Amino acid sequence: MTTVTLEEAKDHLRVLDTAEEGYITTLIAAAEGHVATYLGDDLPDPMPAPVRAAVLLLVGDLFENRERQGDRALYENTTFHLLLNPYRSAEVL
Questions:
Q1: In angstroms, rounded to a whole number, what is the distance separating the alpha carbons of residues 60 and 55?
Q2: Spatial separation of the C-alpha atoms in residues 40 and 11, rounded to whole Å
Q3: What is the CATH number of domain 6-66+73-87?
Q4: What is the 3-state secondary structure (H, E, C) of the chain?
Q5: Residue 82 CB: number of other CB atoms within 10 A?
Q6: What pLDDT does residue 75 have?
Q7: Mean per-residue pLDDT for 41-67?
Q8: pLDDT over 70 (residue 70)
Q9: Where are the domains of the chain?
Q10: 0.90 surpassed by pTM
């Protein structure tokens, strides 16, 4: 399966150093697992650009909002659903 690479995620996050690589790798795995569950199937191989973009959006959200509680309200990004809905299995709709 073609997964989002650490370098892709670091580029997306604009992270230049290596200090957070282990954490980012964990976020990639979590995001890909969530996307696969949302799609109702394994991630497509090769991963279409919209699915890859949704994984990166989720990685970015998890990276920026790593605390359970914050000082501002968080809202769901509808772009995630717009990117993934065409790839959802009919079984999960």
A1: 9
A2: 28
A3: 1.10.3230
A4: CCCCCHHHHHHHHCCCCCCCHHHHHHHHHHHHHHHHHHHCCCCCCCCCHHHHHHHHHHHHHHHHCCCCCCCCCCCCCHHHHHHHHHHCCCCCC
A5: 11
A6: 74
A7: 93
A8: no
A9: 6-66+73-87
A10: no
